[in-house]
């Protein structure tokens, strides 16, 4: 059975994901140091008790997630957060997290992956949002079907304001506010969040909008990284799917 | 027909809503100065083209909203925002907005109003969140019915983690992140937004959670203020309901 | 008759003026979006009602100025500013502004242009201030005459503390405070502003000082850019001179 | 001959001028500590070599000014500033400065004093600007004459946009940017500075504007404080007038 | 055997120590939440493995310290800090810390306590530094003996620049930089830290200086609070002395 | 006798020490401008009255130090600082200071110099800390002797937690807090400061720790720069040793 050292894994991931290029909302890398040698990795979108418990049942000893522990503040371990950290520590697990680097990566990231899965040609990067283009416009109703299939079984929230789709912006997770920065560049926007003001803004912009879910738009990057680790180190990696309709 | 001056109206509302007590994300008060004497007020949750157009059809000349124009930045009028401002200016309308003061007001605010409508006794204020209490616990299923009735026809998203309800926190609109500040004080939380992490956090906290919609939880304060103006000045005030399921 | 698109014009100007290199006090580029296709450009130093009215009379549909709308703050349109914006919007004009990039540009900027007009060889750039040099010193009285001629009919305010002139610093507009950063490098300073402390500082430094007016020192850059646009696109460009003795 | 201790003088002035109420651009109080017991005070608007030299000739041993040494930065003593500090130290002088407290003081400040000298009744304070009112409007031409007399021999720069004067705002020194905060409250503004944009702004506001000079509007407060010290301690105090037309 | 709830204890201590009055470098109050009902409290200066281990041996279940976990940053649990937190969590302990409130408290604080132990009358508070005074000056050599006795067995570092002692400033722990704020108010300063520049600064100031150790000057406040809790709640409280010569 | 100009000297030192690469706590370069032509340089660790007086006795006219005047604040010259500056100015001396650039320089800096003096091979730079390595581990007791010899007569404070030494981190002066950034990279740390928490942190890390004194660890860089100036300009340079055990 293969085993790897957690600091070597961190160096490997940092060299690929380059967290120093992002102004993020969490520490990217090891957030809780556990046993230094690990045998199996649980990969997932979000760090929570259900994810930890499942990982333990599956005999994983490292948790690698997109949403780890967020926030810059004085040290305070209370309530639900304390219970999560307690479970990690008592089981000698390591917690690693990569946030924005997994949204914006040019090869393994969520946004690039979604565009490629929809057969769009990558055209431009604006912050962590990626824009892709079809050679010829397609009907929105056809595009919609492709998106449904890609994110199945996630229910989509759709605001249609265009009959055709040619240029698509994608910002996974809570990306609805990035819409303004690409207003004049796209006809369709896919993200994982909708706000009260979104419906009217996209109507006034004349842009199609699809909310494909925060969770569902963010499984791509972490899965890619899981595959990369498995292929590079020959270690066992399991994607633990705590599906979340939000 | 009654008419009032927009600066007198602003002074009146400031004296009640005390915007200087809040560290807000927009200017509270007049955001766009139109005709100084106005005859009819359109009251609503959000400033957008549909709201402006309806207000114009209804012969209103002042727009009073909860969500006006947000953000602290250099002056730049483009795209959908430019078209909204253009419509206001070409019709000589005034735009007034009050944001956090309408969430946190002790008498007219959204949060206090929701608690009172559910027959809870006001107990404590934490930032703009209010906490209310029943004398004796009631069944969650009964509480749920009351909430459905209050926000009808808004579909509710519910995470039940408790059979009973006694102490309820309410933070209207985008308040899901305020949950942590009241973790040990409540058994049930009502807000207008749900995030990807919310389901697991409330499960781990053992707290019931109801998302009653950003829009639907924020109609109370602005309606109350509309009524107050009508009663105080005898001027015509109309609530314009651009219902939004988000 | 030639026509151009305002976004193409903005891209063209940004590629030359590189606003991202400056930490400025306003948004550089389109500040108010009007008709997308324009036929005639009004170029001028400052955005105000007199400038807007003249531009309208001259059938201009884009205003390109050095002093647009300044300040980073919450959105608030009131008083004189609201009336200016109203006039722009009701006439479907576009407002574009470039501030520091027009002071500091190496080819088209105010400071470089003034030095060249006085036959000085460009020697060094300190922030947006440029320093130029004569091969041999000339009498201040001769230099003074050249400066009078260049800025005619602007009355000059002069503090002479040197009989000769060899090395001259120029900072257009409100640049009196940049004097300290070039104290040891120049014998003469030209700017567009004088402060209460200036007379004594330049006397103690032994440096000649000429205030040639905020307005008069800032016509060069915007005129150059107007010429550049005319030559590049063949579109009509008119410099509108709202002369200001300050 | 009377003598006083510089720390006692500082305590006395702090108790009256309350520098802790202002967010200023310099340290208010002792800026350079010299001999602890002093016999004669030089009072003036601005700290510069001419002022220091005259004070030394007049046998003063404490300099009390409105404009001392400004700026929050690392310690660096060079060029003209080093020569000023050198002259202070070699002559064992003390430098004391009070800036905003002398503009905004309710009894001794520049702005209140100017309004009272023009027989206006004090009505309101907005930041450090004071607003005064006549019972009945007077002709601008009569008001102008009074202002000329008060600031004689200072040449005034005048923009007249109203025939009458009733409510006057005063902000001494570099106060032109405070105009916007009182736009709706006054018909006439007096300050000590004019900017390129001022002419058009006051024209569009319909407000009379008088620039009475930075220096000339700031002699009042420091003179009042000089008199107060003389009366309170019986020590010799001399106002040193380094007149400056700016 | 008495038991108390950790949240009640926190409320009690907050009501006395008022952490909201301080701009501190750590969270004051519960830093790690353990068992909610506790039976015995370990009180000490600093949180480290030796302190935790001793507290566990003594059957304590709450750690109350002056130096808890410092720093405002993203969540990262690694190396020695992870091992400390691990020991706390695996033993179900609670960690509470109060930092500046224990230096500056008027009754229970370190600085007030040291002054009182040396029979000085409290005179003034400057930030968290307290100043005390003898009615008549005493010889420094006599004062030195008293200080040695008070802090025994802590070796003192002494810079004597005065033969007599009358007015003494005390700032426990790392307080050497507060010396400048009391320069003119004291003849003798006691703190718990010495820096490279201190010797020359106190010589030039003519002030006696005693470094009585960071640890030794900070046992007073936490001991007082331990006594207060024992007396108020009747619960067992033990001071654990991990003596540190620094 | 050689003489040099202070501005040329500053340009020379800046070109080598590159102060713009550091985010420092003081201005690096000329802090007080004295006579422009100087004949002899006093080099030392810290700027204080004893150092100034000795330099004057030795006929030096430029003071070049590692610790000059620190802090970013409003101008205020009082107490001991005023007396130091007064002595500099009255003797027409120039004060130059370089702080972090002398700690972190790759060739002349304190940290590199200490590692080289102990025959360690330079391996890595982390901020201004340098790490060096022996080819084979040596006994700590042998290493200790070398360190004692290097810093003689400075008394060392030693916490031994390892029998062997192979990889050593050095951070001169107040560097104890940089220990955490190299925790996993070294077995031994040398610095010039110890804090109350240090003993326990290094024990828990299992790292040897030597406090060789703030002063004693910081003589290397400034001496090297003194030698460099002497060799480059042929001017007289004298190291003035105001030894300080801290």
Automatic annotation (TrEMBL), chains A, B, C, D, E, F:
Identify the residues that bind a divalent metal cation: 66-67, 103, 214, 218
Q: Which GO terms describe its molecular function?
A: metal ion binding
Keyword Metal-binding applies = yes
An example of a Pfam family matching this protein is DUF34_NIF3
Keywords tagged on the record: Metal-binding
Q: Which Gene3D superfamilies match?
A: NIF3 (NGG1p interacting factor 3)-like
Keyword Endoplasmic reticulum applies:
no
> One GO CC annotation, please?
cytoplasm
Q: Which InterPro entries match?
A: DUF34/NIF3 (IPR002678), DUF34/NIF3_sf (IPR036069)
Q: Which NCBIfam families match?
A: YbgI_SA1388
User: What family classification does the UniProt entry report for this protein?
Assistant: Belongs to the GTP cyclohydrolase I type 2/NIF3 family.
What is this protein's name?
Nif3-like dinuclear metal center hexameric protein
């Amino acid at each position: 059975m293969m085993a790897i050292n957690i600091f070597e894994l961190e160096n490997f991931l940092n060299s690929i994901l380059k967290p120093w290029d992002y102004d993020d909302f969490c520490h990217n890398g090891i957030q809780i140091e556990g046993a230094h040698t690990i045998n199996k990795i649980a990969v997932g979108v979000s760090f929570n008790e259900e994810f930890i418990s499942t990982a333990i049942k599956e005999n994983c000893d490292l948790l690698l997630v997109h949403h780890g522990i967020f926030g810059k503040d004085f040290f305070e371990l209370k309530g639900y957060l304390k219970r999560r950290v307690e479970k990690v520590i008592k089981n000698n697990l390591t917690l690693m997290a990569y946030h924005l680097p997994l949204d914006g990566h040019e090869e393994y990231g969520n946004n690039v992956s979604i565009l490629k899965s929809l057969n769009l040609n990558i055209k431009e990067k604006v912050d962590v949002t990626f824009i892709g283009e079809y050679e010829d416009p397609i009907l929105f109703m056809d595009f919609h079907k492709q998106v449904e299939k890609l994110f199945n079984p996630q229910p989509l929230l759709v605001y249609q304001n265009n009959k055709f789709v040619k240029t698509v912006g994608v910002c996974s997770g809570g990306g609805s506010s990035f819409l303004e920065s690409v207003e004049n560049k796209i006809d369709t926007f896919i993200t994982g969040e909708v706000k009260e003001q979104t419906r009217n803004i996209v109507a006034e912009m004349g842009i199609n909008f699809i909310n494909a879910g925060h969770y569902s738009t963010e499984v791509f990057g972490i899965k890619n990284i899981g595959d990369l680790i498995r292929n590079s180190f020959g270690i066992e990696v399991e994607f633990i799917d705590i599906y979340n309709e939000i």
